[in-house]
Structures are given as C-alpha cells and as structure tokens.
Specification:
Structural class: alpha/beta
Oligomer: single chain
CATH topology: Rossmann fold
Largest sheet: 5 strands, parallel
Order of helices and strands: HEHHEHHHEHEHHE
Number of strands: 5
CATH class: Alpha Beta
Distance between the termini: 16 Å
Amino acid sequence: MSSAVTLVANALEAVMPRPATAAGLPDAPVASAPAPAARKAPVVLDTNIILDVFVFADVAAKAVKQALEAGEIDWIATQPMRDELERVLAYPQIVPRLAFYQLAAGDVLAAFDRHARLLPAASKCRLSCSDADDQKFIDLAVASQALLLSKDRHVLSMSKRLLAHGVRARAAM
C-alpha cells in the first residue's frame, strides 16, 4: 500500500467504527476481504478540493486522488455540487488554467461522474455557514456523518461545531 493511500486509510479509520469482540468490546481489525462500498467511510469534497485533485494536481490532494482511483473512499456528492463545479469550471480565471493543464471542463466533470456517488440533496442541518454556497457541503457531511475536505475558511472555521455533529472538517487527508 502506498504511503498516500496509507494516510487516507488512517484518516478514514478515525471515523469508522472498530469491529466488536464477542464480549462487545472494540478489538483490533481482523484481516478480511475489503469492505463493500457501502461500508467505506463517506467523504465530502468541496469544489476547491475537486479542482486541486483533478485540475491543479496539488501535492496535498495527491492522497485523495490515489484513494479515489483505488476505490478506497466513498466520495458522496449531490447534483447541486456538480452544478457548482460546472459553473466554476467556466470562470474566467479557471478556463486558462484548464488550457494550461490541457484539460477541458468536460474532463473534470467526467472525473466527478466516475468517482462521486450522487445522493439526493441533504436537508438543511442545524448548523449554518456564513457562506451560503458552502451550506450544501456541510448539510451533506452532517447528514452522512462524513469526513468533509475543504480549504474554505468559512467551512474550516466551523470545525469544532461540526465535530460536535460527528463531522471532521479538514483541509487535506
């Protein structure tokens, strides 16, 4: 297992329950077949992380990309998140970057479609983000008890409040 994939596995292990022994107490994981997709810890990626993974090849996003390609994380998203990505990919400051990396918006959207598992939009949770555009990521992470990867200061400033709702918000794996 590569070191990047190990980092992802360690981050996800922190949010996944441990198996219980016959006595009902947590025990060390037992070697077994890989868990089915439904048992992987869900991860929500905000738009900036998606751009880092699929456009900018950011070093900090390398672990996420490797884990996605290996099928080791369950990236969950909603149609409004995909719509936002499509809108951002048309921004005047992003179009030249796509050209520089010899990508088209369709390439990034195809990667989204290949790796993300679309869910219905989550209901508004009790937490409110000061940036309304970020609320959809928070709502889905809270509803799914998912790891939330974001570089957005509005989201990261909510880390302690999100943790109280079972969500770890981090800038990277």
